[in-house]
Amino acid sequence: MKNVAFSPEDARDRLVAALKELAREQGFSKVVVGISGGKDSTVTAAICARALGRENVYGIMLPDGEQKDIADSRRVCEALGIHFRTVNIGKMHDALRDAVFRSPEIAEDGDFPVPDSRESDINVGPRLRMTTLRYIAQAIGARLAGTGNLSEATVGYCTKDGDTSCDFSMLGALTSIEVVQVGLAMPEIPADLVRKTPTDGLSGVSDEEKLGIRYQDIHSYIRSGSCGNPEIDAKIAQKEAAGMHKRRMPRILDPFEAGDGNA
Predict the structure, then answer these.
(1) What are the pLDDT digits (tens) for 56-74?
(2) Whether the Cβ atoms of residue 92 and residue 128 lie closer than 8 Å to each other
(3) Is the Cα dihedral 224, 12, 45, 36 positive or negative?
(4) Residue 25 maps to a domain
(5) Which domain holds residue 159?
(6) Within a domain: 186
(7) 3-state secondary structure the chain
(8) Does residue 158 belong to any structural domain of this protein?
């Protein structure tokens, strides 16, 4: 979509209507949302509450040990009047690390060394959160709402089998800039949380600092074809190509496809 006038009120209402229709078609009434306290999960939960009723929305707060802004997550749930609970994934994370980095005395034959990777460890959080959300959603007969936006997906700023795993993507057609606009058109949620600087809560820096790209530039690249700076456009395009595997189902290697096998 390029150069199309954007109405946050219209987008909000269309998403509400789309979720109502999806729930009718698939026969569900309850949804689970991971609540981080940032704009994406806040707006997602608010749209779900409008569409299905706040009594049918279950917000799950998922700190990994200590989360300094956990109070923001609670504010979202209380402002919307949805069900909520906290599940701390810190012990799960520690248990996984302990299982991978086994002490030498319990090492098994054939063990190979696993490097202590900071990026791999950061991505454990989203994957453990997804597993926890799936567990709860299935237990209560609910669907899992995805909270990622189009800007993040475009540059691959998401975790495969983590925040990309959901039953429906609420904000996947909206850029980060548009999510803010929709959020500000919803008076039931705190405006300061909608404007809150996006961060993964793990790396210690903002999303834009980690990406090295402004969300406004990504928005312009998506909606207008260019942010006005060829170097930044190229950087976004490179990230888009490199992260495309996160936006697609795994490729099936088909032995029955045409070919002589020597390619």
Answers:
(1) 999 999 999 988 889 999 9
(2) yes
(3) positive
(4) yes
(5) 8-247
(6) yes
(7) CCCCCCCHHHHHHHHHHHHHHHHHHHCCCCEEEECCCCHHHHHHHHHHHHHHCHHHEEEEECCCCCCCCHHHHHHHHHHHCCEEEECCCHHHHHHHHHHHCCCHHHCCCCCCCCCCCHHHHHHHHHHHHHHHHHHHHHHHCCEEEECCCHHHHHCCCCCCCCCCCCCEECCCCCCHHHHHHHHHCCCCCCHHHHCCCCECCCCCCEHHHHHCCCHHHHHHHHHHCCCCCHHHHHHHHHHHHHCHHHHCCCCCCCCCCCCCCCC
(8) yes
192, two tokens: 């300061």
Amino acid 29 reads: S
* Alpha-carbon gap, residue 211 to 152, rounded angstroms: 10
* Amino acid found at 104: P
Q: What CATH number corresponds to the domain at position 66? A: 3.40.50.620
Dist CA 199 CA 178 (whole Å): 17
The rounded distance, in Å, linking the Cα atoms of 143 and 146 is 10
Residue 256, in any domain of the structure:
no
What is the Rg, in whole angstroms, of the alpha carbon atoms belonging to the chain?
Answer: 20
Mean pLDDT, all residues of the chain:
92
Q: Residue type for 204, please?
A: G
Handedness of CA 136, 140, 141, 145 (dihedral sign): negative
Domain count, the chain: 1
Which pLDDT does position 1 carry in this prediction?
Answer: 45
CA–CA separation, 108 vs 214, rounded Å? 47
